[in-house]
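2 proteins. here.
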Amino acid sequence: QVQLVESGGGSVQAGGSLRLSCGYSGFTDAYCMGWFRHGSGEEYEVVATVDTRGRTTYGDTVKGRFALIKDNIKNMLDLQMNGLKPEDTAMYFCGAASTCGGLLRSLYRGQGTQVTVSS
């Protein structure tokens, strides 16, 4: 059974840090996994992905500030977020897809965890 469960969201002041965690099950290493977010606008934005070869890619808006950590033993995908900005405020989702390009369209996603950054 496929399952993804996020945790670790919350409220923080600008410049602060948060670590989001995603526990997953029912996937093999044949899946791309990552985090994406939905802020106040209509668009969803891919934050970071790790593909089947272990290559990590970050969105331009988070490069240098966020880090993706995948633990294949514990089946965890964490997102370490540093230097948070008010524009990072969003609902964050953990997801999986057969290709990283399909992450936003995938039905494999958790319920989301809210991150709020105040100025």
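next one coming up
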Amino acid sequence: VQLVESGGGSVQAGESLRLSCAAFGYTFSSNCMGWFRQAPGKEREGVALIDTTDGRKIYADSVKGRFTISKDANKNILLLQMNALKPEDTAMYYCAADLVTGGNWRSIDHWSYWGQGTQVTVS
């Protein structure tokens, strides 16, 4: 399984970015997928989750109403639309796949696969 993120960049506060995560060797309809982020000196934190079996979505409080997680199952791509970006959104963003059954989605130890990350900088 390989997860490859793209779409990061440097933007001004209030602008938007859309992150993509292409999944290779992974069946989108089989489990949850999520987005995490890690700022310098901070722990990796959960941003959003989508249950690909029923479409259920969960967001961190800090991004509710601004970020939208979605999937294109036909193309095996996970998306994160980020609007109204703030400087505190600056971080490396990672996608994750295959949450262990009954696992806590916010726990990085409960995910099987990770991408290499894409940097988002908001000034």
